[in-house]
Amino acid sequence: MDDSKDLRYLTCEKYYVFEMLILVAGMMGAYTFNLRGGVFCNAQTANIVLMGIAFGKGYLGQGFYYFIPLSAYIAGTVISELFPKQVRKIHFLRWDTYLIGFEIFSFFLIGFIPLSAPVQIVQVMINFICSMQYNTFRQAEGIPMATTFLTNHIRQMGVWLTKAVVHKQDGAWKVFSRHFRMVSFFFLGGFILTLFCDMLKEKAIWIAIIPLMVIFVIMSIADRTQEKEYLSQKPHGH
Which value, to the nearest 10 degrees, does the dihedral of the CA atoms of residues 105, 109, 20, 27 take? Predict the structure, then answer.
């Protein structure tokens, strides 16, 4: 496709899409921590540390277990690298849209897995989902963003606060506010999901389907209408 015909930003790159995605990520974190083993499955840093601790204490079986969530995370990345190219050949919906649909379906299934089941089942499923989401949604209107964890957003708040206050850089407050909003939505997701954990138990994850459905409908409509001729266009950062 001629670059001159490219849209500046696709619907899958809009800020509000990223805000709703990180809201969902906060819900996933609260769900696994409150109900599925007291851990966070949105990233893998903690698993590497826990693996090192387990091996350091001589708990070899426990240490080797962490290769499972790590493998799930890697698998999610590989799939989200390979599938978009195949999906573009179908020319019906974007990979990004299919992924949101897959998350909805996965959360629906997770809601039927009883709390008595081994927590590792849901943990690995969340690892897999987070990996694909993180690797698929990379930039919100030109600004690199993560939709599953906050470390970089908090760092960027410090960077852009310095640029705004000390260097008086134009537009710095706007970028700072974008990262601040991502942190706020992540917090909000954790807060909301926690309120429903005692009430809904394993089905509390279904609350996260609500914002995902909103995203799915918006992106599907865009794919089939105003962005239909841009289905082959890659989002920024890919």
Answer: -170
**Position 38: which residue type?**
G
Structure tokens at 2: 């001629």
Cβ distance 127 to 168 under 8 Å? no
pLDDT of 36 above 60: yes
User: What does the alpha-carbon distance between residue 14 and residue 31 come to, in Å, rounded to a whole number?
Assistant: 26
Is residue 30 a contact partner of residue 190, using CB atoms and an 8 Å limit? yes
Pick from 130, 100, 141, 103: nearest CA to 16: 141
Name the residue among 17, 46, 238, 3 with its Cα closest to residue 147: 17
Please name the amino acid found at residue 125. M
Query: For 234, which DSSP code?
Result: P
Q: How far is CA 79 from the centre of its chain?
A: 15
Radius of gyration of the chain (CA): 19
Name the amino acid, one letter, at 14: K
Q: Give 143-186 pLDDT, tens digit per residue.
A: 999 999 999 999 999 999 999 999 999 999 999 999 999 999 99
Q: Is 119 exposed, middle or buried (0-12, 13-18, 19+ CB in 10 A)?
A: middle
